[in-house]
Each structure stands twice: as C-alpha cells, then as structure tokens.
Amino acid sequence: MTDPQLVLTERVQQALGAAFGAEYTDADPLIRPSQFADYQANVAMSLSKRLRRAPREVAQEIADRLTDFPGTVEVSGPGFLNITLSDDWITAQANESLADPRTGVALTGSPQTVVIDYSAPNAAKEMHVGHLRTTIVGDALARVHEHIGNRVVRQNHLGDWGTPFGMLIEHLLDIGEKAAVAQLEAGEGNAYYQAARAKFDSDPEFNQRARSRVVTLQAEEPETMRLWHIFMNATVRYFNKVYTQLGVTLTDDDIAGESMYNPVLAQVCDELQERGIAVVSDGALCVFPPGFTGREGQPLPFMIRKSDGGYGYATTDMATIRYRVQDLKADRLLYVIGATQAQHMSMLFASAKIAGWLPDHVHAEHVQIGSVLGSDGKMFKTRSGESVKLLELLNEAEVRAAEVIRDSDYGDEERREIAHAVGIGAVKYADLSVSHDSEYVFDFDRMLALTGNTGPYLQYAQARIRSIFRKGEVDPAQATGPIVIGHPAERALALRLLGFGAAVAEMAESSAPHKLAAYLFDTASAFTTFFENCPVLKSDVDPAVRASRLALCALTLRVLDTGLGLLGVPVPDRM
To answer: Helix (H, G, I), strand (E, B), or coil: what is residue 115?
Structure first.
C-alpha cells in the first residue's frame, strides 16, 4: 500500500523540477487534506515570491506538468492545487493494504538503537498522577519504535540513591523490616518518607544515625546494601503493581536507576575537570555551556559537583548520557521528562556535546511532558491538597467504567475484564490524545464518554466491527474482498485507511502519540459514517458488495487494533 500524501508529495516534487528546475524538487509541496477535494497543495503560494510570479500562474505551471497522475488536479482560488484521487487508485491501494500483514506500516530501512528514558518514579514515594504521563507516553514511543524495526532500550531511571536513603534505612531498622516492607509494598511510601523525615528533623540521635548511614551507603558497606536492597525490592514491587494495571511494557530488566551510576560519578567529574570542560566556581565544579545566562546576564552554571563535594542530578545525568551513547550505542535518545525540566535538559545536552559524549550523529530529544490539572485548572490534587495516588486513580477509572457498562448482558468475569479495558483505556487515551507538552484537565466524565475523541469511542468502534463478523459468522482474516468502492462513505473510509502507515511513521519521527490518536479517531469516525450508510449483512445486499464491505470492515479493524495497540490502549472484543 502506498500512502496518498507520500505519492502526491513525490509527484508534485517531480512536477516542480520539470517546471522550474532541479533545485526545486526538494521543496515541500505543502499537501494537506482538503474540504474541497481529497487534498490541497499550497506550494505555489510559498514559491511565488522566490519565482517572482503570480501564485496562480505557478500553480497552473505545476498542474500542467502533473502527467501520469492518479486523479485530477484543479487550480483554485489565488493558487491552490485541489487534488482528487481516482476511485480506481484508492481501490487498488486498499486491496493492497488488505493483503499486507503490516497494513502499510513500513519497516525502517536503517534500524536505529533508540534509548527511551521514561516513568522514573522516586523510591519511597508513591507513584502519583504526575507519573502517569511520563509512563504511558514513553511506553507508546517504545512500542511504535519496535513496530517499525528499531532496537529499543527502555531505561527506567529510578530515584534510588542519595542522602535521603540514610534516614529511610534507619527508619526501616526502627520499625522493623517486615513492617517497612508491608508499608512500601502497599504504596504508602509518602507516609513512610514523612515519618522518617519528621524523626530526622526532631531527633538528634536519629539525625546522626541517618548521616552515618549515608557514609556507609556511599561506601557500599554490605549490611547497608542489604537493607537498601530490602527497601528497593519492596518499592519496585509496588511500582510493578501500577505498571501491570496500566499495561505498560516496563520490566525489572529496564531499571537503570541513579544507583547504577554512583561508581563512575567521581570519574565523570575528574575527566571533565582535567579536560578543562568543567571549572571550579564558588567551590563547585561547573560546566558553563554557551547561550545560558541568569537574570543579570551572567553565565549560568551546570553544576557537576557541589561545593560540599556531593553530586546532584547533573552529575548523574552526564554519566547517564555517556553510558547510553558509548555503551548502549544509541542513535537516538528520548527523555520523556516533565516540561519543567526544559532548561536542565537543554544544558545537559549542550554540556554533553562540549564533552564529546553527545556526538552529532546521535539525536537527543527532550519529550516534554505537561502537567495534569484538576477541574479548577490547578495541579491535580486530592481535596486535602495531596498528590493523587496513581493506583487509586486507576482503580476508580475501572469502577466508573463498570458503571458505564452496567446494563450489558455479560457475566461477572467478562464484565470485570471489559471494565478494566475501558477504564484503563479511557485514562491512557485521554492523555495520549493531547500533545504531550500541553496541560490537560483530568475529567472522568469526558474520558469515559462513548462519543467524541475518547478511548471508549474507539474501543466501541472496533467492538462494533467484531460484532458484525460474529453475526455474519465470518472470520475477519477470511474477509479478503476484493474491495470495490461504490458509496461515498466507502470511498472516504478506504481513503482514510490508506494513511495508517504515514500516521505511524509520523508518530515515531516526531515523538507525538497524539497525532496517531487523531488519525485513529478520524478513522473510527469514518467507519461510523460507513456503518450508518452501508449495510453489510442485510439479506438484500449483493454478495459482491457484502464481500467488499466485510473486507473494509476487516481492514478497519486491523488498523484500529494495531493503532490502539501501539498506543498501549487495550481493545476488548465486546462492549
């Protein structure tokens, strides 16, 4: 199958070269879907000044050179090219897509190693709604890169090291290992941390024990490390409960926390200082990447080692980027991290480039994650002002989803499975359907609606298709057509389905799950129109038409299932 926009881009670029010279063949034809035709090319408007000719004259010149074209081209308005593809071409491409196991999604010609840093909760603290976005956006990116043939290395950069662990380990000893493990596994990390902190601030003896414990932790003394492992294992088991309920692909093998880099932090600092890349400023070791200044125009430091000799996020992050490039052989680095860290990430990339640890052939990208807001437009909190526990939020989503489907004729077990898929799918899709760097309001009523751009709407569309095949007693895999376009709704759906490969490629290229989500919503909407206007199983439907429409249904089902799967949204068979 060939994506229409890719075909049209290639043909228009060829026409540009034929009309105005080879130097114009790489110009962007600016092809977009149009309400007046299938597509509209606006390149004549952008080239008119460069060519010193009227846009409409440029457009006509291009149209005249579009020979052997799969449709018709008309010049309209001040210089737009309205393009309508032929039904025969759409039909041929749809049948090709139907026969293609990958449904038009091409494998990359040059597979890359893509390292994706995502989720990264802090130990001893509950996963809250703020971790939702980094976890599911990163997981969707991992899925899509694997689907197109890249080697994906997931990195769950846990906050599992540092000075707070002195008091956390001492608190574990005070309350006993068994009680500590039970509390951490139950997701009560915040209460655990607050209790330890209260003692640290009020009890001088505990304070001294905690400080001494930090020293033994940094020295990796065996007993301290045993206690640290007990603490971390219990915490990770809690994280895994969340990951399992969310249905993300992170495993324990993907954990690469701060502790992993502790042995090399001194080496990182020494190397940067010896090479003159980092200098001592006010007692701290800093890199001063160009272009970053403070309020008074002074160079902004990227602090590699604190004045007291301690290490911070910058130290670990420099060690991390070096490891991912030199050891993991990354071609592309995706950091799925909050938008509030934008300056830190920019300074990290700039400092790593100066050090030679981020060479030009490696692309590093901060996939900025916006905040989740409550109905009041402020950060999403409980009524008491605390962060909302992610596990409680997911449980509530499933309970509410069960209410949405309470009138269905399913057994208890199937009802629970559907409620899980709908509830979790609603939460994940609501997040993934908006640009990852934007804020959005968390609203269960909107998320769980069966109409509009929601997870349940898309799930219902694919469930409706499955019901067609059940009623017709046909296996979707046996619906081989051929597809023949007769009704405008058939044409619109077939044309929409041809864009699947491009939508997947664009998500991978631009790290933008919301673009794939938008494509899937448009596809589901086109199917709804098709379903309402084109009977499939009625007795008076011609057998050839029935076979064609079943094939369109099968192709739509495959696109929706695959697309939602790449987003990590579950797809129940029934709703």
So the answer is: strand
Higher pLDDT, 380 or 197: 197
* Backbone CA torsion sign across 539, 544, 547, 550: negative
Q: For position 385, what pLDDT does the model report? A: 62
Distance of alpha carbon 252 from alpha carbon 236, whole angstroms: 8
How far is it, in rounded angstroms, from Cα 228 to Cα 528?
Answer: 55
Q: Which residue has the tokens 């006010």?
A: 282
The one-letter code for the residue type at 496 is: R
CB proximity list for 328: less than 8 A, separation 6 or greater = 113, 115, 153
Mean pLDDT of 554-574: 97
**Quick one: CA dihedral 170, 176, 179, 184, positive or negative?**
positive
Residue 364 one-letter amino acid:
A
Torsion sign across C-alpha atoms 95, 98, 103, 108 = negative
Reduced DSSP (H G I as helix, E B as strand, rest coil) percent helix, strand, coil of the chain, to 5:
55, 10, 30
Cα distances (Å, whole numbers) of residue 329 to 115, 183, 240, 368:
9, 39, 28, 23
Q: How far is CA 525 from the centre of its chain?
A: 23
Residue 413: alpha-carbon gap to chain centroid:
31
DSSP letters along 372-398, please?
EE-TTSSB-B-TTSPBPBHHHHHHHHH
Can you tell me the distance from the alpha carbon of 184 to that of 254, in angstroms, rounded to the nearest whole number?
21
CA–CA distance, 327 with 321 (Å, rounded to integer): 10
User: Element (H or E) spanning 184, and its range?
Assistant: helix 177-185
pLDDT tens, position by position, 423-476: 999 999 999 999 999 999 999 999 999 999 999 999 999 999 999 999 999 999
Closest among 89, 90, 150 to 504, alpha carbons compared: 150
575 pLDDT exceeds 60?
yes
Distance CA 194, CA 62 (A): 69
Position 412 scores a pLDDT of 85
pLDDT band with cut points at 50, 70 and 90 for residue 406: confident
Give the C-alpha separation, 83 to 258, whole Å. Answer: 54
- Residue 482: asked if its preceding bond is cis (omega within 30°), the reply is yes
- Residues 363 and 430: beta-carbon distance below 8 Å: no
Tokens of 126: 């509950």
Do 553 and 465 form a contact (C-beta atoms < 8 A)? yes
Nearest to 567 by CA among 152, 214, 136: 136
Is the CB of residue 426 less than 8 Å from the CB of residue 397?
Answer: yes
Q: Compute the distance between CA of residue 61 and CA of residue 72 in angstroms, rounded to an integer.
A: 15
